[in-house]
């Protein structure tokens, strides 16, 4: 007679344990002590793993369970408490816990993470020598006052990749070196537009809502940009009103010149490229829209941005231009055909901007959120310069779909002829120059100064797109290897409640590609999924985007 009413009362009396989710479920935890009167009334739930507060009316007065006094719940703390958690037992790990939980316990005890042997890495230091040890800053929430955050959550280190010269070899003086090389750093960062966060809040259930407010997030994001101090910023998911009122004025105050392209349609976010005026001057800015009316394949509102920059040399001499491209491709994992078409349009614009007019290209840096995983066909196309797409399952292009069952196969032509782009990902003039599909001859840059997206609306601009192979000749290499060498675990660039994968990239034209190519000097290391799960995924108290910023340093040989 009493079982069901007591169970109902018990459920109604469940309380938040206020114990951080950094604990071990051991034998003592699963069997809390209950007052004798409650055990006699309902012995069936004595061994429950839940944390119950016994109604005082059942025992004739208040009853306090074992353990320390619980503190008040702080919704802004990274150590989020659980509704069903520990009853407050003071216990110590016995050494048999899983590795992830041992690591959590170690971080609570302020023990530094172990250093992996053989790595030539330093503490998290920017490419310019500025420290990045703690990116947590004080944010302010309306009505909540100032929140002090002093816990370093992400152990990211600067990894120098330059080869050490032999001890007997002398370096040139700084003055001589400045005449033959130009160093610069570049960041790619998806900062998570607030509108998209609110439209997809199911991805961020791990994070308390006050931490997701834009006022709080912007403080953290801007502090990251300021401390990482990159010479070029390539940002995605930049909301237009936040860009105009907050981001652009603050970056301009730091000495940046900013260019922005908002998505088409009713979307309010877009891509931005910002560069230091002391390091570069702007030659041209090309906003790229992937939406094409009257072409059903290109009916999405994604965009890109291409800038042609001239390095500012202290010596006043001439230097090769640098082409920087930034984009955010379509997310839909099952529309690889759209992603390839968007990528082809962007590459055509890169080729037009970076062409030297002699069949060569100036150094190129191509980055962004490509919504594709490493080793996917789309990734391999960027890296290898060639892709046989005919017969490829449409959902396999980006590698986000594990199964290709029931998916449509790609067939040639991938896009209609009136788009005006060839299978070599170049804008073509009316006198189309056919390239033999089986030839190994390097592709030549085509003068496309008179060709634009408006060419797709003209009947006279017809280009045959009959090859089953997509090609480009940019000789691009990824800054990151996508795997941790010591453990073999995959690096990730985004991690939220649903997934943890790599979708963000920085590609650059290698030193052998053209005269005056780029050399990779170093990079800010990425993390694994396990690393990010231990800090409650992204965003969190100190990192206010669901993506990690990518940072690399390059050397341009003059």
UniProtKB/TrEMBL annotation:
Superkingdom assignment: Eukaryota
A GO term for molecular function: mRNA 3'-UTR binding
Gene3D superfamilies given in the database record: Endonuclease/exonuclease/phosphatase
GO biological process: 3'-UTR-mediated mRNA stabilization
Residue span, Endonuclease/exonuclease/phosphatase domain: 188-547
InterPro entries: CCR4/nocturin_mRNA_transcr, Endo/exonu/phosph_ase_sf, Endo/exonuclease/phosphatase
Pfam families named among the record's database cross-references: Exo_endo_phos
Transmembrane segments: none
Name of this protein: Protein angel-like 2
The organism's taxonomic lineage, starting at the top: Eukaryota, Metazoa, Chordata, Craniata, Vertebrata
Region (Disordered), start-end ranges: 84-121
Signal peptide extent: none
């Amino acid at each position: 007679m009493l079982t069901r009413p007591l169970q109902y009362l018990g459920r109604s009396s469940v309380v938040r344990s206020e114990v951080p989710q950094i604990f071990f479920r051991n034998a003592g935890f699963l069997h809390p002590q209950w007052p004798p009167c409650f055990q006699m009334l309902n012995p069936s739930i004595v061994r429950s793993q839940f944390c119950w507060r016994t109604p005082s009316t059942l025992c004739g007065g208040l009853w306090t369970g074992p353990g320390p006094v619980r503190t008040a719940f702080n919704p802004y703390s990274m150590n989020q408490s659980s509704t069903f958690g520990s009853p407050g037992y003071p216990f110590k790990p016995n050494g048999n816990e899983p590795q992830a939980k041992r690591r959590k316990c170690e971080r609570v005890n302020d023990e530094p993470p172990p250093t992996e042997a053989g790595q030539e890495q330093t503490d998290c230091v920017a490419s310019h020598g500025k420290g990045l040890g703690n990116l947590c800053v004080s944010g302010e929430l309306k009505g909540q006052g100032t929140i002090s955050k002093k816990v370093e959550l992400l152990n990211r280190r600067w990894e120098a990749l330059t080869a050490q010269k032999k001890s007997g070899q002398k370096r040139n003086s700084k003055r001589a070196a400045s005449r033959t090389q130009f160093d610069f750093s570049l960041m790619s960062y998806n900062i998570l537009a607030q509108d998209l966060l609110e439209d997809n809040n199911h991805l961020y259930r791990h994070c308390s809502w006050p931490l997701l407010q834009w006022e709080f997030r912007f403080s953290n994001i801007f502090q990251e940009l300021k401390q990482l101090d990159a010479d070029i910023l390539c940002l995605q998911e930049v909301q237009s009103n936040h860009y105009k009122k907050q981001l652009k004025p603050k970056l301009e105050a730091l000495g940046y010149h900013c260019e922005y392209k908002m998505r088409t349609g009713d979307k309010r976010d877009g891509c931005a490229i910002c560069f230091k005026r002391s390091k570069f001057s702007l030659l041209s800015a090309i906003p790229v829209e992937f939406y094409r009316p009257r072409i059903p394949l290109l009916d999405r509102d994604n965009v890109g941005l291409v800038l042609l920059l001239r390095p500012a040399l202290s010596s006043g001499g001439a230097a090769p231009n640098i082409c920087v491209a930034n984009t955010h491709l379509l997310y839909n994992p099952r529309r690889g055909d759209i992603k390839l078409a968007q990528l082809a349009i962007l590459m055509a614009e890169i080729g037009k901007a970076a062409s030297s007019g002699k069949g060569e290209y100036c150094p190129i840096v191509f980055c962004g959120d490509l919504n594709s995983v490493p080793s996917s066909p789309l990734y391999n196309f960027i890296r290898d310069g060639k892709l046989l797409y005919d017969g490829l399952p449409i959902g396999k292009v980006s590698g986000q779909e594990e199964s290709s069952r029931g998916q449509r196969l790609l067939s040639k032509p991938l896009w209609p002829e009136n788009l005006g782009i060839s299978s070599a990902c170049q804008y073509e003039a009316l006198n189309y120059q056919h390239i033999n599909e089986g030839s190994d001859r390097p592709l030549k840059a085509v003068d496309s100064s008179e060709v634009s997206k408006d060419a797709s609306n003209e009947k006279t601009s017809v280009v045959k797109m009959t090859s089953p192979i997509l090609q480009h000749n940019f000789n691009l290499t990824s800054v990151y290897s996508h795997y941790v060498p010591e453990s073999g675990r995959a690096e990730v660039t985004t991690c939220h409640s649903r997934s943890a994968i790599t979708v963000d990239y920085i590609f650059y034209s290698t030193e052998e590609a053209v005269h005056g190519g780029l050399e990779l000097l170093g990079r800010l290391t990425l993390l694994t999924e396990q690393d990010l799960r231990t800090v409650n995924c992204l965003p969190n108290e100190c990192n206010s985007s669901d993506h990690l910023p990518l940072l690399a340093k390059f050397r341009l040989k003059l």
